[in-house]
Amino acid sequence: MQSLSARVPFRSDLHLAPTLRTCAGLLPLLIAGHAFAQVEWNAALSASPPARFAPAMAFDQQRQVMVLFGGTNTNGQASADTWEWNGLAWTLRTPPQSPSLRTGHAMAYDPGRGSVVLFGGQDLLGTSRNDLWEWNGITWSPIVVPLSPPGRHSHAMALDLFRARIVVFGGDSNGVLLGDTWEWDGAAWTAMAPAAAPPARSQAAMAHDPIGGAMLLSGGQNLVDTWSWNGLVWTQQAAAPQPPARTWQAMATDYGRGRVVLFGGAGPGWVPFGDTWEWDGTAWSLVPATGTAPARYAQAMAYDFATGLVLAFGGSTFLQLLDDTWVFDGSAWTAAAGGTRPSGRSHTQMAFDAAAGAIVLFGGWDGANVFADTWQWNGAGWTPRTPATVPPSRFWSAMAHDRARGRTVMYGGNSSVGQWWDDTWEWDGNNWQQRLAAINPGQRYGHAMVFDDARDRVVLFGGQTNLGMSDETWEWDGTVWSLRPALLRPSGRFGVGMCYDEDRQRTVLFGGLDNNGFLADTWEWDGTAWLQRQPLASPPARYETSLVYDSKRRRSVLMHGYGSNGPVTDVHEYDGATWTPRTAAPVPTVRSEHAAAFDEPRGRTLLFGGRLANNTYTAETWAYGPSAPALALAFGTGCAGSLGAPSLAPRGSALPWLGGPFTMELSTVPAPGLGLGILGLSSTTWSGGALPFDLAGLGMPGCLLRVAPDLLTVLPAVGSTAPWTLQLPANAAFLGWSLFAQGAAFDPPANAFGVVVGNALELRLGGI
After folding, report:
1. pLDDT digit string (tens) for 412-461?
2. H-type helices in 128-237, by residue range?
3. Pairing status of strand 349-353 against strand 90-93
4. Which is it for strands 584-585 and 39-43: parallel, antiparallel or unpaired?
5. Among residues 270, 307, 313, 278, which one has the least CA distance to residue 294?
6. Beta-bridge partner residues of 84
7. Which of 168, 214, 329, 523 could make an S-S bridge to 228, C-beta 3.0–4.6 Å?
């Protein structure tokens, strides 16, 4: 290999002025033309079946997936969708043919046919069905037989695995309770005629008892009884204790442990149970409440042979329908990864909890129910939190995270009874605490809040109050609320988008709705005064929108909302001077009343929920950001100089985004206070030779050149630190490219050459 002195034109006067050496390959990159790099939307979670009541579910042993069908949705309508769970995620299937819309049907695996079969249910007209269908993984097909049981819904049905028979008992036939027993052998129905049978009922549960070798029937209609069926006779099991009276409970056979598992159900007054019971072939026992799922009834439940876990989905709490997925391992219920999330809702609130490194969500409503639940997003999924203290249910409140105190602050909102709140709550990552403040912004909803990092204050603006739309600005310092006077300020309004621009130290406000209609104005609050900005172009007027500050890309992101022509689905970004419309695909469904927050560890804006154009409420979670995020990755070590090894690092949180400046700092620069920046296109080869290159031959023992010296620049130091700023091109052609940077310092006493080198950085150019 050539010596470095022969390959790099070091000059004795290099330290006298900011000299630049550029190779032909790097120059076009640094002067490339202007064009925006790509941004994209990603579904942050796999799709989930919408919330529902009385669906049916069975495990397909042939294809090793769980199959779910139908049930009653949040609009009170029966559905006819087919979903499959593979142990990790739900997938919506779109068969060419399906059973009709229905609820209260039942499903089981038919080993003779090698498929999941569905029987009965109640259709949209309230008619009890007696049709039989099978699912082969591609389509549903009707099974036509000469004899069928009477039509019914809310019946008990399960597979007797030992006898290869599907057993059906009872149900509701157009308002008449049934107490009959039928069996399906894969080819025909047989009406069984036992001498004695359980009392007629609906909403009971049944599962196979592998230890007792019989079918086990429990409850329904708030009955307290347990029966077993051996294929010939029913026998009542009277051993105490029995699960308390209930209806719409769910049962499944855990074949891995030889237990029948019973979970949930509704007691008198439709109070949901959250208890879990197990049958060991002889008696019931209550499972200790370790890791419990939320109480519910009318959920779907089945044993997953692939994972060895009991799976439960959906159901009702009486106040709301659920769309969460839980698994039971014999000792505890846990939220299934990718299968549990807040239910569909609007006007919920989210904030990034910097102390926890996660996003916290509270409350909201779905058109019928107002929530008081707390959830946390960790970048991979939602986790329900169960704090000891819970604020009253609310929607259209406001939240902001106080970084100085490590608390997420929530104020006001609308209640389930039409009361507007004037309370202040704080979340510490584990529990909610109410903060009492005699002077406060008063009852309001539809206001906005952000945290001002520069002044350590939570800033609140606007909202709907008893006196009308507010134009007030309030600040919370962790102890008291203060009304901030401002001669010039935005008009009274609610439903604005508001965020805090950390780099410019300004609160940015856009749009909203005032007494004159939808707004499209941009304002900034510097802690003392409001200033209306006049960008050349602005997004269309809207309210019920979200505005989030992307601290990685240093811009405010406005997404979705409700305008004069209804819900909108556009995205605009504001850099402090201009608004720029952005095109990103795939685009989430058009919506308003959603929530959004910036997920700092992942470098993306997270969007959750909202009201869709058809007035339904979604539980979708989407992430918005660059298709190729910028990265600055350190590698290698430097060689020691008179003050130690020089160190090259990004300044603050700076990242190499296309179209923007990127500043690094070279520290540990001794007198005479000059550094050297080395920039290249490779960290493995240069001019036909391999990197790193040992500089000992140049009188620099222990020093390694780690990047191709395609560009060299002198860096004057301030004190012992030398800043180095690169202006990166705004050209999507370079999206995902890597540049490599290394710092060196002139240090005459250190070695014969008088230079020591530091670590290196890989600069991955990210989209803006």
Report:
1. 999 988 889 999 999 999 999 999 999 999 999 999 999 999 999 999 99
2. none
3. unpaired
4. parallel
5. 313
6. 67, 91
7. 214
